[in-house]
Amino acid sequence: MPRVLLTAFGPYDEWRENASWLALVRLTQELPERPPVTTRRYPVDFDAMRRMVARDLETPYDIALHLGQAPGSAAMHLEMFGLNIAGMSSQRPEDYGPLVADGPAAYCSELPLADWARKLRAAGIPAQVSHHAGTYLCNATLYWSHHVIRERSLPTKAGFIHVPLDTSQAVASARELPSLPTEVVVEGLKAILSELR
Predict the structure, then answer these.
(1) Which residue among 79, 132, 146, 147 is the active-site one?
(2) What CATH number belongs to 4-194?
(3) pLDDT digits over 30-60, tens only?
(4) Where exactly are the structural domains of the chain?
């Protein structure tokens, strides 16, 4: 039976709640007994998150699956690549730097993302494989997880899923933004976990 690490992020910027954390909290109320899942909430901070990833992966998990919020998205995005680049929207692209100075340009998730996306869509849940997780913290989580796994020769497989805003977040925003009810995201996560048994 695979052991699963499932993480989400806390609030940041204008967002008083994070859709990934809302989904993870709701999921913990309905978690099946198997597979065994350990949950974590990561801060929206590069250094703190990097330390937590390194510490959490000291436990021999089979799967490390990270969740993050994607304002502007209307579907669950299963991220294929973590890129060796770190940047924030407040920076110019030429000021972005590598996450690991001598690390590979990218890591590719070994999880069956395409199969998961097809399963979710068949269940009526909007989902698609995305080529990479951006250049901010979500991407860094995916990249650093893979880097730690490689450096320690761990059997762990890592992945990242971006989830849309919860409908309550979209309603509270002054902007018109797509959303997906947390209940739908939770059903998607439960479907993925059922594949790991």
Answers:
(1) 79
(2) 3.40.630.20
(3) 887 778 999 999 999 989 999 999 999 999 9
(4) 4-194
